[in-house]
Amino acid sequence: MTQKKIARGLLTALAIVVSLLFLLPVLWLLASTFRTSNETFADSSPLSWAVLWPQHWTLVNIKSAIDNGFLLNLSNSLIVAAVTIVVGLAISAMSAFALAVIPFKGRAATFSIVVLSFLVPFEAIAIPLSQSFSQWGLTNTMLALILPGLGNGLAVFTLRQFFLGVPTSLAEAAELDGAGWWRIFWSVYLPLSRPAMIGASLILFLFQWQAYLWPILVVSNQTLDLAPVAIAKSFGAFTTNYGQVFAETAVLAIIPAIVLLALQRFFVASVATTGSKE
């Protein structure tokens, strides 16, 4: 028993050390947000506690980011992500339900196409897709930023796998009571799929939140720039306000970190749940 406790303690200590090593760059980024660029690079060598703890705290970097219009870029990212989650989740849930529950000819082939859709890197189709958007007159619009994120094959796959675990007896009982497919989907499957829906929402959110290549291809109007693009444009040809870049990057990283930490148990449940719900 004592050996097991010692082994568990050593593993716990090792896990803490590894976690801290992963956290060091994040802590350095957060610390650099609240000090000047000169202090950031001056304190980086030799290594000391000053790397992770500013000697002179300042909000000048945050003020510089606000003055540079970063709040507008951040709001653009939030709007795009929010609309994508609401509309994309509805599309993904209905598609997953059809592929998991409704029998129709060619269902297996359709599901294979869905799987292939998220196996192909988006970068491989981004340029020809942007040309199509240009021909349709959709460039420099919020719609152009939102549309590619609505049909997410990974979100459909995640929800379908969850729906397959729901007992078919529930759908059969509802069908005997006269319920149609829409009623079965709305009243039987959706109430049971809260973890999977939250997991799919996270997938849709992260896809749009970290988008960089696509916004560059379809948007040239700076008022529509998303946060990652705005950060990239903060780098000048000759001079760069690194403090401002650190502040913007920290904000961009903190928001998904908070969301993931708050909802991680639902995301894990959506991936791990494959058994019967009976």
TrEMBL record:
Superkingdom: Bacteria
Domain ABC transmembrane type-1: 74-263
Organism name: Frondihabitans australicus
PROSITE patterns: ABC_TM1
SUPFAM superfamilies for the chain: MetI-like
Gene3D superfamilies reported for this sequence: MetI-like
Name this protein carries in UniProt: Multiple sugar transport system permease protein/putative chitobiose transport system permease protein
TM spans (from-to): 78-102, 109-130, 142-163, 184-207, 245-263
GO cellular component assignments: plasma membrane
Membrane topology, record value: Multi-pass membrane protein
UniProt KW RNA-binding keyword: no
Family label: Belongs to the binding-protein-dependent transport system permease family.
